[in-house]
Amino acid sequence: MAEINVGQIGLTPITWTDYVGTAKNGDDIFSDGPEDIYKFSIDNQGRNINLTLRDIASGQNATLQLYRDVNGNGRWDATDQAQGLLASSGNPGNSDESINYRGAAAGGTYFARVYNYGSGTTYHLGLSGTLSNGSSYDRASNLLPKEVAVGRLVSDRSFNSSVSDTNTTNTYAFSVSAPLFQRTKVDFILNGLSNNADMRLVRDSNNNRIVDRGEVIASSMAGSISAEKISASLSSGNYYLQVYQFSGNTNYNLTMDHKGTSFS
Q1: What is the C-alpha separation between 238 and 187, in angstroms, rounded?
Q2: Biggest alpha carbon distance in the chain?
Q3: Taking the domain 2-134, which CATH number applies?
Q4: pLDDT digits (tens, 9 = 90+) for 69-102
Q5: Rounded distance, CA 137 to CA 1, Å?
Q6: What is 150-181 written as a DSSP string?
Q7: Paired strand residues for 65
């Protein structure tokens, strides 16, 4: 097991590439153990804790968990393991994992646990602390996991989900294939809200799976429980749509209305 002290996280994402598990390298077998622990802290400005785990090897299955430092001693110990679990992401196979959790207003120390059920895998971990009380733009996660892998968008799609203090952002990854010198028109509609949620459309131009300056190409922040809508004309490429909490907990309905087809 490796224990890494990341330090304080904030708006600027921190990324980490490592290996977890046991593997055979030629005639040598080396072991790092089935888990890695990342210790980090947030300040008292009000932070959403965003964690992503991606690039898990084919045939492997790694999970991502968030714990708090229950006894405040700054060490990963039996008390934290027994009483400190806040959130867990355990998608099947080598799918991306994601946690977006509203941290304590007073700040504090937390642990991210990466656990692999297979023989061993390299992985890429992302951590950030966006502002839970800031502008709408700063509340969404600035990490881009393929949390919901939509695939190539060739027809209308609809999704039902929720955002809350324990799941502040949902990220939908999709691609568009448009004829040369043409664009595909898509309406993204978010409704069925009982509290305020917003959405934004991202094109990750440099493919670093982080929302960099200039990569948010459209957003909708209507306020209250009003429906949100983005109408976009998209060239071929990979995109991410993020639905995120502004205040309170809410279920929602998300429609991706592909204008080349009629939504039924």
Answers
A1: 16
A2: 62
A3: 2.60.120.380
A4: 999 999 999 999 999 999 999 999 999 999 999 9
A5: 37
A6: EEE--S-EEEEEEEBTTB-EEEEEEEE---TT
A7: 88, 113
Place of tokens 């200039």: 214
pLDDT in tens, 177-207: 977 778 999 999 999 999 999 999 999 999 9
Q: Say if residue 74 is exposed, middle or buried (CB neighbours under 10 Å; 0-12, 13-18, 19+).
A: exposed
The closest alpha carbon to 144, from 158, 126, 129, 163, belongs to 126
The 10 Å CB-count burial string (b at 16+, else e) for 159-192 is beebbbeebbbbbbbbebeeeeeeebebebbbee
**Total-model pTM:** 0.92
CATH topology of domain 148-258: Jelly Rolls (2.60.120)
According to CATH, where is 2.60.120.380 located in the chain?
2-134, 148-258
